[in-house]
Structures are given as C-alpha cells and as structure tokens.
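Two entries, shown back to back:
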Amino acid sequence: MKLNDAVFGLLLTLLGAAVLVAIRGYPTIPGQPVGPALFPGLLATGLCVAGVLLIAKGLRQRGAQPWFAWDDWVRSPRHALALVVLLGSVMFYIVAADILGFLPTAFIILMAMFLVLRVRPMVAVAVALVATLLVHTAFYKLLKVPLPWGLLTGVSW
C-alpha cells in the first residue's frame, strides 16, 4: 500500500502531537535542568517537523502521486496469508504468552511466519529456536524484562 506523503505526514504530525500532550504531565526533577519529558519531547518535536515537511511535499506532488494505492502483493494469496499470519501472531502472543510462556509462544510464532514465507522446515526450526533463545536472553537476562514463563515456570533460570 502506498500513501501520499501528505497522508503519512499527517499521521506523523498527529503522533508527535499526541506524545507532546502526553508528556505535559511528566514530573520535573528538582534541581535538574532536564526531566523525563526531554527525550520524548525532542522525538515528538522531530516527528511534528518531519510530518509538516511531508505534508508540504505531498501536497506539492498530489497530481503525480495518488492519495492511496495498493501494492501488487495485495493480490497475491501467499502474501495476503502472510499478513494474516503476522496479525494473528500478535493476537496469539497476547492470548497465549502468559499460559504457554514466552519461549514456546515465540517459537510457534516464528515457525508459523517462516513456514508461511516458504522457508525450508529444517532451516525454520533451527532459526526459530536460535532466534527465540537469543531474544529471550537479550530481554530476560541482559535487559531484565520479566518475560512470562508459563508452562516452563518450574524450569525457569
């Protein structure tokens, strides 16, 4: 799907404005010139500036570039199925992660994605296993993100 730059610029500007509104309530740190709103505020301001520039560019090119156009992949059943599997995997993670745990859920999601994208099954198993373990290690051990253990609670490390 292709969007005119003005449409995408409007979305970026709205996102930046929403962040700027949300950070107004962030507390200040006494005795500090900067607070927790500084970095999100800078990013939001950048989004707003980039959005306005994209809106201007899109409006200048509106004769040559349509507001909205479908890409060729949309007519491909295989690619449409891959999109459905991707969106379904997000819903599956939300529902199953606490029950199954991160490791089995991530492995199942990666396997589904690899298989729908026609990755050879043995390669899919190997890459899904290694990727799941690497992501778990990075988030659980290094970044201390509390990932759910689910069925594996008894063997958690």
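entry 2 starts here
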Amino acid sequence: MKKIFFLSLTLALSVSLFAQEKKNVEFSEGTHDYGTVVQGAENGRIRTVFKFKNISASPIVITDARASCGCTTPNVEKNKLIAPGEYGEIPVTYDSNRVGSFNKQITVTFGIGSETFQELLYIKGVVNAKPEAQPTAALVK
C-alpha cells in the first residue's frame, strides 16, 4: 500500500513539474489601467508602454503583436534581437474618441530559436464623453 501511495505521489509531482511553463520574459505590468479619461484625450490616442526583460538564456525577438480590436494598436519593432538580460518595450495606443469602458487584449508572439511563445497583455479604462461647449450669450447693446 505504501508503495502505491509513494508511486502515485511521485507521478503527480512529475506531471505537475512538466505542466509548468518556463517563463522567458518578465513584464513590469501585465495590465495597464488608464483610469478615466475624457473623450479625445491626448489628441485621440492615449498611450502606454509595456516593458519587459528577457529572462531566458537565449536571445528572443518579437515576431508579432495583435490587439483584440482595431481601436487598440501595438507598435513593435519586429524581429529586433533582445539578448538575455536585456529589456524591450511594447508601445500601445488606444482610440480615446470611443466613449465608454474598455478592456482590450494584446497578444504578443515571441520567437526564441525555432520555438515561439505568446504573452497576453491588457489595457482597460473608461472614456467619458467630452462636455459639450456651452453657448455663449450674445452681448446686448
């Protein structure tokens, strides 16, 4: 009975170790919260930059970056080599002319040797409608 228990325990631990994915990059933040902004803020494009570090033992490259919709734009320098221990950036903009709350996903694909892996990043916030300009009263003479 003890042998079956220890064999089961060893098997369970082995499976859980293989199930853990090795991280190759480490982001300073995985979600950026813009908070509440006014419609049209920053000339209609609010920006953030996701910063990451290559924590693998091999050079990596960004092969692709895609957003979940057209209102979000990741601007990456594709295929730029990032050596082990070096930092990289993923600039992202959001169309602040769209009123309402938003929660968008950015899928970044990295290459390391002949392998690829993906990381998910998120932006969120609320865009409030721009207050309408108050009509000025005509001066009466």
